[in-house]
């Protein structure tokens, strides 16, 4: 029985998101080192959270592994992040499935689950879905 | 009119007796509430619990505007939605659904459950089924799929809503 889940969490416009850490291969600063992989800013993927706010330039990247991306070495790609990044061990008891009504109506298909941890809501994302979205954006550009 | 106070008292008592509900008549429990400056009700079996509107609700990004967020109900994460768009109700006048009297109804229907933000809980009552009138022909088209009847409750015109139909419509992308 799984008692906890290692999750890389990041903030974006006052919201917290999480990715299962086993999908995250590396982390780095955009200013220092940019691997030869496609970089997609998270702000380009998420529907406008708060439309009055200008998207921020990514400061960091996470190298994510996903077979569906189809571009870059080994299907890896870089997710560009403008906010804080951290690694958490989330107790399984904090993690909930997405309520069915929200699952049906979500505008952002990678949303997979929710976690309430230390008073804050963390929206857990499906890495494969995120990669699929990223690959479309990359191809469109 | 009579000048005998006793007679008058007896007449009043007789009138009161006539007003007493026949206990054998089938009754339905209703949860009556205000929403968007109108009065509505759900059948009691559709509402599991009524929570204070002040309970913290966490915004979930990437959701339609009718999703207020999620709340923690004894360890379970439960969605909280607004029905204003679906029922074409006004949310003007300084977000009345956020006022101190607001409540969150935990509703269940169409095989699922969710919190529903209402402006004010008015009452939870048992009402004789005979007092519920069928929905009139003049009902606006946007309400017709969700209304099961009308009720006069203490002089208020209350519209009875079918939560199964509301959840089903909401899932189809309405509201």
From TrEMBL, chain A:
<protein>
    <recommendedName>
        <fullName>CheW-like domain-containing protein</fullName>
    </recommendedName>
</protein>
From TrEMBL, chain B:
<protein>
    <submittedName>
        <fullName>Purine-binding chemotaxis protein CheW</fullName>
    </submittedName>
</protein>
<dbReference type="Pfam" id="PF01584">
    <property type="entry name" value="CheW"/>
</dbReference>
<dbReference type="GO" id="GO:0005829">
    <property type="term" value="C:cytosol"/>
</dbReference>
<dbReference type="InterPro" id="IPR039315">
    <property type="entry name" value="CheW"/>
</dbReference>
<dbReference type="InterPro" id="IPR002545">
    <property type="entry name" value="CheW-lke_dom"/>
</dbReference>
<feature type="domain" description="CheW-like">
    <location>
        <begin position="27"/>
        <end position="172"/>
    </location>
</feature>
<dbReference type="InterPro" id="IPR036061">
    <property type="entry name" value="CheW-like_dom_sf"/>
</dbReference>
<dbReference type="GO" id="GO:0006935">
    <property type="term" value="P:chemotaxis"/>
</dbReference>
<dbReference type="GO" id="GO:0007165">
    <property type="term" value="P:signal transduction"/>
</dbReference>
């Amino acid at each position: 029985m799984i008692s906890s889940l290692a999750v890389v969490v990041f903030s974006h416009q006052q919201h917290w998101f999480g990715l299962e850490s086993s999908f995250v291969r590396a982390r780095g600063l955009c200013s220092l080192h940019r691997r030869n992989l496609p970089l997609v800013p998270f702000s380009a993927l998420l529907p406008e959270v708060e439309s009055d706010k200008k998207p921020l330039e990514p400061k960091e990247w996470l190298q994510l592994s996903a077979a569906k991306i189809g571009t870059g070495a080994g299907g890896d790609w870089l997710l560009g992040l403008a906010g804080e990044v951290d690694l958490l061990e989330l107790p399984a008891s904090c993690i909930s499935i997405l309520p069915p009504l929200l699952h049906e109506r979500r505008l952002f298909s990678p949303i997979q689950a929710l976690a309430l941890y230390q008073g804050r809501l963390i929206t857990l994302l499906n890495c494969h879905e995120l990669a699929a979205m990223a690959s479309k954006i990359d191809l469109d550009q | 009119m009579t000048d005998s106070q006793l007679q008058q008292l007896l007449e009043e008592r007789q009138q009161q007796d006539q007003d007493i509900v026949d206990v054998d008549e089938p009754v339905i429990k209703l949860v009556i509430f205000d929403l968007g400056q109108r009065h509505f009700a759900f059948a009691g079996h559709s509402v599991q619990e009524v929570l204070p509107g002040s309970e913290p609700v966490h915004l979930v990004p990437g959701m339609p505007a009718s999703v207020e967020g999620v709340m923690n109900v004894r360890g379970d994460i439960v969605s909280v939605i607004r029905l204003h768009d679906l029922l074409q109700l006004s949310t003007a006048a300084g977000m009345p659904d956020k006022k101190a009297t607001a409540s969150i109804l935990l509703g269940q229907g169409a095989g699922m459950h969710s919190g529903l933000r209402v402006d004010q809980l008015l009452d939870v009552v048992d009402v004789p089924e005979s007092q519920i009138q069928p929905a009139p022909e003049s009902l606006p088209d946007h309400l017709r799929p969700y209304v099961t009847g009308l009720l006069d409750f203490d002089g208020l015109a209350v519209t009875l809503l079918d939560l199964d139909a509301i959840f089903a419509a909401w899932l189809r992308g309405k509201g």
